[in-house]
Structures are given as C-alpha cells and as structure tokens.
Amino acid sequence: MSSGSLPDLSGTVALVTGAGGMIGAGIARRFAAAGAAVAVHYRTSREPAERLVAEVRAAGGRATAVPADLRDAEQADGAVRATVAAFGRIDVLVNNAGVQPVRALPEMPPEQWQEVMTGNAAVTFLATRAAAARMIERGGGGSIVSIASIEGSQPAFGHAHYSAAKAAVLMHTRAAALEYGRYGIRVNAVSPGLVERDGIERDWPDGVARWRRAAPLTRLGTPEDVGNACVFLASPLASWITGQNLVVDGGVSAHPTW
Ligand SMILES: NC(=O)c1ccc[n+]([C@@H]2O[C@H](COP(=O)([O-])OP(=O)(O)OC[C@H]3O[C@@H](n4cnc5c(N)ncnc54)[C@H](OP(=O)(O)O)[C@@H]3O)[C@@H](O)[C@H]2O)c1
Q1: Residue 104: inside a domain, yes or no?
Q2: Model pLDDT for residues 189-233, shown as the tens digit of each residue
Q3: 120 CA from centroid of ligand 1 (Å)
Q4: Residue 1 has what pLDDT?
Q5: What is the CATH number of the domain that holds 32?
Q6: What is the pLDDT of residues 108-121, one digit of tens each?
Q7: Using CB atoms within 10 A as the burial measure, which of 57, 84, 141, 202 is most buried?
C-alpha cells in the first residue's frame, strides 16, 4: 500500500509505545507516513528509537523519542507529558509495548505469570489512563489502539500467561471504550497473528510452515500490516467504531480448528 492511500492524519499527534521494537517501529512509520507527528516511545531500545526518529525527520516528518518503563504509573504519565511537551497535544495512543516469553504451564514460575500480566495488561491500563486524562483535559476527543494478539482469543502452547494477559487487554479495551466514550475518546484493539521478524524462518521453520498452511493468505504479517490497521482505527474513517477488536492475521482465525 502506498502512503498516498493512507488517511490524512496531518495535524495529529500519536504516541506509539514500544516503538524501538519490531512492530512498534512499523506502526510509528505508518503514522508518520499518514502525516502524524510521532512520539517514539522506548524503554531500553534507545538506539533503534533514535534511529527511527532520525528516519522520520529525514523524510520530512515530525518525531521525538520518549523513554519510560510503563510498569510505573509516574513514568507512563511522564511519556504522555513528554509527548505533549514536544508537540503541544496528544490525539492518539497506540499501546504496543508488551512482553512475550514462552514457558510451558507446568514449569511456569509465579513471578513470570505476574511479569507477563503486568508487562502486557497493566502497562496498557497505565498508558491509557495517562493519555485519556490529557485528552479529557483538552476538552475530549482522541483515539486509543491497544495491540492484543489472536492469542487473546485462542490459546497457544507455552503462552498461558500471555494469552490470559492479551485477553485482559481485549476486555480492558471494551471497558475503556465504555467509560471514555462520553469524552469522545474511542478505544479499540488490534489482534495480530504471526508477524515476520529477521531470522524467524531459520529459528522456527516448523512454526512458520504451519502458519503458512493455516493462513488463507499464505503469508506471515508485516509490522506495516499492523500499522495500517492502527492508522485506520485512529483515523476519522473509524469515527463510529469503538470497543472493537480488529483481527489482522491473514485469515488464520477463519481456518477450521478441527
Ligand atoms: N511478533 C508477533 O508476531 C506478535 C503477534 C501478535 C501480537 N504481538 C504484540 O505486538 C506487540 C509488539 O511485539 P513485537 O513482536 O514487536 O515485540 P518486541 O520487538 O519485543 O517489542 C516490544 C517492545 O515493548 C517494549 N516494552 C516491553 N515492556 C515494556 C515496559 N515495561 N515499559 C515500556 N516498554 C516496554 C520493549 O521496549 P524496549 O525494547 O525499549 O525495552 C519492546 O521494544 C506486543 O504487544 C506483542 O505482544 C506480536
């Protein structure tokens, strides 16, 4: 898809969490291509975040890097404040930051369960609350998109904690849509399927082959596929859509399960 066919988001400001990571970078690139000013949030991936900021600026866009550990309420609020300080407002939050370790349920330590619940669900809650507070202060209006996963609706081996946490993200999305709707703030989720990353074919040939067989569109997703869905949900094209989960999985969810 060419950037010319994206909705026009010029004049809007988007904060993308975890944008030093793979999918977050793709999401931030699509918002920048749509004309939005982008706050590129990172926790430890400072260099990739700063490279992305430089790339967006070199292409004529507006971007700034914003650090925070989103498990901490004060830092989550700080990321939103830094976005407003850089660009004067915040219109869009994409809750992309998350953690996805793999561990079989019988061997799963309680600490890892907690880490994955906090690292996916609590970070989404804290950033959403912080961004919505600024949107309301400004008189309301805005859009929040949370990256869940098809595993929030369908379990996967080694991901009991992750599936439960993404299910929590999906319900948080609906609850937030319910409570923030009267302020004109729309809250939706995007549930990606398996997304390409460097080396995935080499590291997990069996998983990739199974995915290709199960996907009607026969390919893995790209970070840009996920970003396009986020841009759509954040744009005026989705002005009457809130509390929904947009599945972006090449059709895997349409595959018979038995
Ligand atoms: N990859 C897939 O196939 C897939 C499929 C479905 C859904 N997803 C979801 O898509 C999102 C992005 O995944 P990805 O594959 O791009 O993973 P990734 O490359 O590991 O990126 C995730 C980013 O989240 C950030 N993060 C984690 N914990 C954080 C915290 N406490 N505070 C602030 N930032 C934190 C990390 O930031 P730093 O690196 O700066 O520390 C990391 O860059 C996740 O929510 C994931 O669950 C991925």
Answers
A1: yes
A2: 999 999 999 999 999 999 999 999 999 999 999 999 999 999 999
A3: 9
A4: 41
A5: 3.40.50.720
A6: 999 999 999 999 99
A7: 84
Is 32 close to ligand 1, i.e. is its CB under 6 Å away?
no
Structural domains in the chain (count):
1
Bridge partners of 145? 94, 188
In a domain, 160, yes or no: yes
Nearest alpha-carbon partner for 16 in 8, 25, 7, 4: 25
Active-site residue flag, 42: no
pLDDT at 2 over 70: no
Does 12 map to a domain? Answer: yes
Q: Measured between alpha carbons, how far is 74 from 239 in angstroms, rounded to an integer?
A: 31
Q: Would residue 151 count as lying in a domain? A: yes
Q: Cα(258) to centroid of ligand 1, in Å? A: 31
Domain span holding position 92: 6-250
207 lines ligand 1 (CB under 6 A): no
Is the CB of residue 98 below 6 angstroms from any atom belonging to ligand 1?
A: yes
